[in-house]
């Protein structure tokens, strides 16, 4: 089969975005398509697959996100901005309520954060501290600034779902080898954490700026994870490292977003939704590989605008 898509990114978190409205495929097929398009050894490569899906009586359109390992995430806030942009353009609107896997999210077109950088705002939450819902079976109902024995780490973690599950540790400096080791412990889906979790190490640069590095469930170490930035901001406010209702810059290896968390668990993010190129690929579902990639258009102005915005920060 041949799949048309847009290669895009939100804060360096890159995806193949497919307009799947009216398309009937099984979850297994979408998972294999995700594995083919997201394979970094293949001709496309990305952190995952985004689907723009049909709306309903309450939602203008929907979103699904499949990780590079073929698993489906509850949401992806960097990807949500890209799907929102596609939905806005196809429906001729500038704000919407979007149906996610288990929740809904509000999105809207924000003023460009830099010249030529298409920017989308999103409201996610409420963040939850109830780890019974994950489930994470560690003998308590919440885990705020406490070590978790099963991780074989002495670091203190705060567990937040938004709705993806996240373990957040505040550190003086990022040790990527340690982050990967902890992330892989979660990725192994131990009996006490059967649905796995994202793990982030966060450096508090000031009350107005955090740096977030994430080992993402189903992906591995990633340049950016939008829900991790939202969860990290909420955890930073909860532990009084920054303030609820304050505007905070959230930086990562891929770029940045701006965020604001409220005490009720709702988190606003504003960041880029950048098109890189548009094309298609032949997908062999039996082997889960992509080939015969045709690039129809490069969005060089957008690529340049994002690069200039990052270089200027």
Summarize the structure.
20% of the residues lie in helices and 38% in strands.
Task: Describe this protein with a few key phrases.
313 residues, alpha+beta, 18-stranded mixed beta sheet, 18 strands, 38% strand, globular
Describe this structure in words.
It is built from 5 helices and 18 strands. The termini are far apart. The chain has an 18-stranded mixed beta sheet that branches. The model has no long low-confidence stretch (mean pLDDT 95). It has 313 residues and is of the alpha+beta class. 20% of the residues lie in helices and 38% in strands.
Write the layout of secondary structure elements.
Blueprint: E1 2-10, E2 13-19, H1 27-38, E3 48-54, E4 61-67, E5 72-73, H2 77-91, E6 95-99, E7 104-110, E8 119-124, E9 158-161, E10 165-170, H3 176-187, E11 198-206, E12 209-216, E13 220-222, H4 226-238, E14 248-252, E15 255-261, E16 267-272, E17 274-284, E18 289-298, H5 300-311
Parallel strand pairs: 2-3, 4-6, 10-11, 12-14
Antiparallel strand pairs: 1-2, 1-17, 3-4, 4-5, 6-7, 7-8, 8-16, 9-10, 11-12, 12-13, 14-15, 15-16, 17-18
